[in-house]
Structure formats: structure tokens, C-alpha cells
């Protein structure tokens, strides 16, 4: 292959040949290959470590689960209150002596615990948009405690609370949850 004048600045450098399989100067590009320019760029994504601008789906799911737990706590509070009133009334009736053996103080205490747990869930869920890393840690503790407390009365509500507690802990504890709660607020 000859490139003409050895002093031509646009020709191949002296002593080097164009790579095999590559067209030399003046040859036409083979058809079927991309044209001039750069290939299509991939879609723009957030760079690693960048603060998210919208709440990630897993964090939003954790917030929704907190609202669902609030609903269950309201139902539980009502059931404990109704049970305590029923036990108080059963103490006067001889037909319900077995039911009257239960302590109304324990039922009222469980009602207060269910109410406090529901309020805690509502406060956490309401602050997910503006809360910082402290809220993330509190939601993580809430999820873990919910899962642990759900193990004892292994009822239908216990199973649901167990699953929801584990999911809340996982969703706020993962990297997306960490990035959401540690994002800068201007």
C-alpha cells in the first residue's frame, strides 16, 4: 500500500501500516456499521451518591405500611376497649363468670399500648417527607420492635404485624432508604 508522498502530514506515519481489517485513508466505510459520531448514550441516571429528589418506592411502601399498621392499631384499640367494658359488665352476670376472671386492668393497659403504638406509627409516617436520619433510625427500631412483639400472640394480626415490621425495617434500612433520609434539605 502506498500513501504517496512520505512528507504528507495527512498520510500514514512512516514505518507504520494501517491496522489490518481497518480501512486505510481514502477507503470507503463498509456498509452496515454505525455512521459518524458517538454511539447513542444510555439514559441519564443519578450518579452514585447523589441525593434522590423523589421518595424511592421502597421508602414509600414503608410509609404506606405504617399507615396500615395505624389502621390495625385503631381496630385493636377499639376491640380492647370493648372487651374491657364487656368484662366489667360480665362480673355482675353469673352466666359469664368465666369471662369475668380476666383482669380489666390488663385489657385497658393493652388498649393504651395499642393506642400509643398507633400514634407512633402515624407520627413516623407523617414525617417521612421531611425527616432526617434520626427518623430513619426510629422507623427501623419501630419495625424491629413490631416484628418482635408480633411473635408472642401469633394470631392473624400478629402475622401481619410480623411481616409489616420486617418490611419496614428492611425498606428504611437499605441503601435507598439511607440515601432518602440523609439527603440534603435546602
Automatic annotation (TrEMBL):
Residues 9-19, 25-39 have a biased composition (Low complexity). The keyword Oxidoreductase does not apply. Residues 1-49 are annotated as: Disordered. It comes from the Bacteria. Keywords: Membrane, Transmembrane, Transmembrane helix. The chain crosses the membrane at residues 64-86, 106-126, 133-152, 158-175. The keyword Transmembrane applies. This is Integral membrane protein. It comes from Streptomyces lancefieldiae. The lineage of its organism: Bacteria, Bacillati, Actinomycetota, Actinomycetes, Kitasatosporales.
Amino acid at each position: 500500500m502506498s500513501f504517496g508522498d512520505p512528507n504528507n502530514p495527512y498520510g500514514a506515519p512512516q514505518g507504520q501500516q494501517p491496522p489490518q481489517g481497518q480501512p486505510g485513508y481514502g477507503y470507503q466505510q463498509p456498509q452496515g456499521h454505525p455512521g459518524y459520531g458517538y454511539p447513542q448514550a444510555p439514559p441519564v441516571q443519578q450518579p452514585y451518591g447523589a441525593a434522590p429528589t423523589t421518595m424511592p418506592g421502597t421508602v414509600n411502601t414503608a410509609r404506606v405500611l405504617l399507615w396500615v399498621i395505624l389502621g390495625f392499631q385503631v381496630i385493636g384499640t377499639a376491640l380492647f376497649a370493648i372487651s374491657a367494658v364487656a368484662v366489667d359488665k360480665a362480673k355482675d352476670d353469673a352466666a359469664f363468670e368465666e369471662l369475668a376472671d380476666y383482669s380489666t386492668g390488663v385489657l385497658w393497659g393493652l388498649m393504651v399500648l395499642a393506642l400509643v403504638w398507633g400514634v407512633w406509627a402515624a407520627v413516623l409516617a407523617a414525617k417521612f417527607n421531611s425527616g432526617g436520619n434520626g427518623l430513619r433510625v426510629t422507623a427501623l427500631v419501630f419495625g424491629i420492635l413490631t416484628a418482635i412483639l408480633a411473635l408472642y400472640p401469633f394470631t392473624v394480626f400478629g402475622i401481619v404485624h410480623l411481616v409489616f415490621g420486617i418490611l419496614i425495617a428492611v425498606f428504611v434500612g437499605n441503601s435507598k432508604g439511607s440515601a432518602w433520609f440523609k439527603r440534603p434539605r435546602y
